[in-house]
Write a structure and sequence with these properties.
By secondary structure, this protein is mainly alpha-helical. It has helices at 2-16, 22-39, 52-69, 77-84, 87-97, 103-117, 126-138, 148-164, 199-213, 220-233, 236-250, 255-264, 272-280, 286-300, 305-314, 317-330, 338-343, 356-361, 366-385, 388-411, 416-432, 436-447, 462-469, 476-497, 501-525, 531-546, 550-557, 570-585, 591-603, 615-643; strands spanning 174-175, 269-270. It has 30 helices and 2 strands.
Length: 645
């Protein structure tokens, strides 16, 4: 109670006191913070019971006011004081020790506001980006920490600054120390044997290191006084430390050291900004997860090649994406109706606000399906926005760690229910992916990576042939879903890779086998299989006929194409079906009236009545007639389009 009263009284005195010049006011508030650690012995009182938050706010307001009163880009005395006396470095040390309790939160807020409100570029200054770099390491260390919100706000403002000036990211690629092991993140300077460091400088450097290490082990105020006292006494130590840094920076590396560093540079880098965001993306708080995902999206889009390589080689981003995809996919029910998957509304990452109560009211597994598709959309958008090096590595990781080990066993199973669910999910995945790198890996997953034409003795790509075989499955429902998947896959690949001869050949390969199977169905089963299957088969063939590909056009629409022995074209199959039909209708009494009645029922003009004999055949005749009309219209339009100048 006495402390709070003292704080209120001091704030009143400061408000009534005459205004000081900006620099004196800034120094006054900083001295007030440093004196707290020298004069106060109670290290258990929370920081909110002290004047430290108020002094930090006043310092920030002073810096903003100073910048507004000066010309753009000009550094004022208050900012010079902050940089010269390494105030941010000291605040980082106090925040790391969390002394008094809650100080880490206040330091994060100060850093965030400083970077966000000051317009002039601060990160290029070594006394800014170095403590910022250190503070980044403290973020995400503990999930669901009380400072989690402040941590993500701080990391996001750093990401925004890097997006504005991408070259600054090089300041945040830290070299690992080979002598201290993986736990150390500091860059060590190899000093040649012929270079000697004065004893007093070496002693001061060691003292500074030991004081920082004591922050996490020793008593709070004792450690903080060790840092504050030299800064508070005079500016000589600051100048001394600056001279030390200058003399260390001026030292030249030995040839052996330089060669070793050159070869191991990429392998020995840390990207702590990415690592901290990845840690926070695992938070139980959904808002924190979305913010962390946005930060990662900004970082992967930076154009710096060094950052892109470090991100894929030395961070766990690939692991994060693939593991979460696998976890969410495995959480899906073993059986989901294909129509539910097909009719699910468009899903975008970050907008996942579906509740379990709504899940029970819709269909079982809808919540899990939305979560999976939402994360898939995030992966797709991340790869779409990423640097080319990053995009290729992330997409390859998804194929190797998710498509092959997780999805492929589900697609190869023999259970009819499992086939329907897995194929429907594949259909949805194909339609949702838009990034070129991820589509490329999906092509490899479904079709294989072989670039040479296939021969009879080649090893078959197991998944590709299984998908084709399912187009002639005993289950009509599987036939419909498989035909739809094959067509959508073909359309996506042609649309995205029409100019890439390899992918056109691959798409042609899968289409050729799929089309052969479809022709067999059309040839032998068109007049005997269900109406829905006929609609799906003919719809796929009609859409394939629309593609402006010479092979497709010739094979589907040219009645005079020269065929090898035992080969069929669409025209030859239709001729055989019509010939078979002419024989069958002679055995059906009142064929024409029945055909007219069935057509009216399909159009909804005539209400359903008694069952008509040979209903399946009559429906097949109607589908065949409409299919021929559609093919004729397509051929007519394509002919005129090709002849019109």
């Amino acid at each position: 109670m006495f402390t709070k009263f003292t704080n209120i009284l001091q704030q009143a005195v400061e408000a009534l006191a005459p205004s000081l010049p900006l620099q004196e006011d800034f120094v006054f508030h900083w001295k007030a913070i440093t004196h707290y650690y020298i004069d106060t012995s109670d290290d258990k009182a929370p920081v909110t019971d002290t004047n430290i938050p108020s002094h930090l706010d006043q310092m920030l307001d002073t810096l903003v006011q100073e910048e507004n009163e000066r010309e753009s880009g000009e550094t004022g005395p208050c900012m010079e004081y902050l940089l010269h006396h390494k105030i941010l470095e000291t605040l980082y040390t106090l925040g790391k020790a969390d002394c008094p309790p809650g100080m880490k939160q206040q330091v994060l807020i100060f850093y965030t506001k400083l970077l966000g409100r000051i317009k002039q570029p601060l990160l290029p200054h070594i006394n800014v980006h170095r403590p910022v770099q250190k503070l980044i390491r403290l973020c995400g260390e503990v999930l669901a920490a009380p400072t989690e919100n402040e941590e993500i706000q701080f990391l996001c403002i750093v990401c925004a600054k890097l997006k504005q000036d991408p070259y600054l990211v090089n300041f945040f690629l830290e070299n690992k120390s080979p002598t201290r092991g993986a736990s150390s993140r500091k860059t060590e300077v190899d000093i040649p044997d012929k270079t000697s460091v004065p004893e007093d400088l070496a002693s001061e450097t060691e003292q500074a290191r030991s004081s920082e290490s004591d922050m996490s082990t020793g008593p709070c105020n004792a450690s903080c006084r060790a840092v504050i006292s030299p800064l508070d006494s005079s500016s000589e130590s600051s100048q001394h430390s600056t001279d030390l840094s200058a003399s260390l920076d001026s030292m030249t590396l030995s040839p052996q050291t330089a060669a070793a560093r050159s070869s191991d540079h990429n392998q020995n880098q840390d990207y702590n900004l990415v690592n901290s965001l990845i840690n926070l993306s695992k938070s139980p708080d959904g808002r924190i997860v979305v913010k962390a995902s946005e930060g990662l999206m900004l970082l992967v889009s930076l154009p710096e090649p060094a950052a892109a390589k470090c991100l894929t080689d030395n961070t766990s981003l690939c692991q994060l994406l693939t593991e979460r995809l696998g976890t969410l996919y495995r959480a899906l029910p073993q059986s989901i109706d294909a129509m539910d998957i097909e009719s699910l509304e468009s899903v975008n990452w970050g907008l996942d606000s579906y509740s379990h109560k709504e899940d029970a009211a819709a269909f079982p597994g809808k919540r899990a399906l939305i979560s999976f598709l939402s994360w898939l959309d995030y992966c797709d958008q991340l790869i779409k926005e990423a640097h080319k090096l990053t995009a290729v590595a992330l997409a390859r990781a998804i194929r190797e760690r998710f498509f092959v080990p997780v999805m492929e066993p589900q697609l190869l199973q023999t259970s009819e229910i499992g086939i329907l669910t897995s194929i429907s999910l594949l259909n949805r995945i194909i339609r949702q992916i838009t990034s070129n790198a991820m589509l490329r890996e999906l092509v490899f997953f479904l079709l294989g990576e072989q670039r040479q034409p296939e021969t009879a003795g080649d090893n078959k790509h197991q998944l590709r042939y299984r998908l084709i075989e399912h187009c002639d499955h005993l289950s009509d429902e599987v036939n419909i879903v498989e035909c739809n998947v094959c067509f959508i896959a073909f359309r996506c690949f042609i649309n995205n890779y029409y100019s890439d001869s390899f992918f056109v050949k691959k798409a042609w390969t899968i289409w050729h086998y799929f089309y052969t199977q479809t022709l067999i169905i059309c040839n032998f089963l068109l007049l005997f299989q269900p109406y829905d299957v006929n609609l799906q088969v003919t719809s796929v063939l009609s859409k394939l006929s629309l593609f402006p590909h010479p092979h497709l056009h010739e094979y589907l629409l040219d009645p005079y194409i020269n065929l090898a022995p035992n080969c069929r074209s669409l025209f030859s199959v239709i001729v055989r079906v019509v010939g078979d039909l002419m024989l069958r209708i002679q055995r059906i009494p009142d064929f024409t009236p029945k055909l007219l009645l069935v057509r009216k029922r399909l159009l909804g003009v005539e209400p359903d009545g008694p069952i008509i004999d040979h209903m399946t055949l009559l429906e097949g005749v109607i589908v065949l007639e409409e299919f021929c009309k559609e093919l004729a219209a397509i051929a007519f339009v394509k002919f005129h389009a090709s002849t019109t100048p």
